[in-house]
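User: quick one, fold this
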Amino acid sequence: MKRFTCIIVLGFVSSCLFSQTSLPTFFGDHMVLQQKSKVAIWGKDTPDQNIEIRGSWGEKASVKTDKEGNWKVFLKTIAAGGPYALTVNGSEEIVFKNLLLGEVWLCLGQSNMGWALRNTFEGEATMAKAKNSNLRIYKSDRQNWHEPKTDCPSGKWSISGPQSAGNTSAVSYYFAERLQKELGVPVGIIVQAYAGTPIEGWMPWDVQSGSNRSISLKSELDETSKRQEEKLGFTEEKAFKTYQKQLDLYQKQMAANDTMKNKVKKRMLPVITKPARLGNQYPSNIYNAMVHPLLGYGIKGIIWYQGERNSKTVQQARDFKEQLQLLIGFYRKKWHEMSNGNVNKDFYFSMTQLPSWNPVQTQPVEGLEAPWAVSRHAMLEIISETPNTGLAVSIDTGDAFQLHPKNKKPIGYRHAFNVLHDVYKKPIVAHGPYFDSQNIEGNKIILTFNSVGSGLITGKKGKLNTFAIAGEDKKWHWADVEIIHGKVVVYSDKVTDPKAVRYAWAMNPSERNLLYNKEGLPASPFRTDTWKLFEKGSDEVTVFKPKKPKGYKAKDWDRPKMQ
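Assistant:
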């Protein structure tokens, strides 16, 4: 099959050259198409060429290419099953083999979304039993670009097995593995992850141009680009020429089947990092290369694990909520539009709360030094304000020192529980307790929660010790806590007239005694107050990576078994 390629000349992308019939890489052997839908399929050919698409399940669609050679059809799919073939007839015939109809989920985020299964706790044991012809994985190299692309050139579908599963996102794999097992139908995951990237990079500029945080980042990177060009000589023209040389070398290596950089790492497509406006931090540049090409592909929903890069300070974490809501709204609108209405306009979006990281909590409430607490609460607010959103609570996972913790299995499963309950209407408990309301009675605050499941429990023996209570003076004290008749009663002899409660409000509350339901799912951190998180004009306190002790070896944490 022939793919279309773009030629870079003096730093500018010319029109894509094409010879006869071609499709993006996410249409290929072993792919999964969304069942019981009319899925978008598109590509290029010669202008005014008749195109016919035939699925071996008995459906077909046809169209004529436009004057630029573009074509797009919407092909009806039946209930889950396969394997099937998909035949594309245009200037030439292409046959995609061994495809399945099932459930398709898009998995997006930064490095913790991309963190490979082979590098996690239980990774090797999971890989050994990962062979599953009903679980398919699409993955492409990380890429950034200054304008929208139409393909992910290095992308490829693979059947789940020890190697393909081991190399893919652990969170995505555990999510898909659980989904496939419970639904009993084929599941395909499209994994697009890029380490160290801010949310600004994951959506077009016009979507976020009203966000003060996005404006600030863009201005900062524009200034950086100017300095890089004027003082260091990193011009756009030089960047494109260097990129083209690296791309030529990469293509020669691929043609010679020289695909491995070393015994472990495969060669990857080159990326541009300087000047900054062409790099992976700049607004829209990740979206252009890793999301835009996929717009309209038949999906059921998205799972999202990103936020570390946007939670370096409390102020930044506060602004993250608005940005994430903008992204969700745009993705839903655009996917619905590009799929001709066949992808739901309010498809499900499941977010990952940030796990525990940094020194363990010792104060009742951490302040400007705890932006991840603000990020977690922002996501909790989003699910109460935005329909069809879910949350994978992860404060009982993480690592005090490592930004990339190895305990990814609980996170993947918790995404699956959300989706199984909310999307597929399975009669299970979807998540842990979420704060619902508070009632002040004398010197006590009685808290009610939803999703208590079979009842509330502590994560380990002993009393809950993760709640803080404050009066009108806004001074926080550790609280005494009791679980009574499915409610949590909070009080302290230091606070006679209580006004508010916070729970697990810290970077790393993992060593406290956390609240769960009996199904083994943790409560989300929360606050009942609406007090200012910082004073206007306060300096932004940046959280940095802690120094790892010599000889440190990560180990998993104890937590209740998920039922």
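User: anything notable?
Assistant: The first strand starts at residue 8 and ends at 9.
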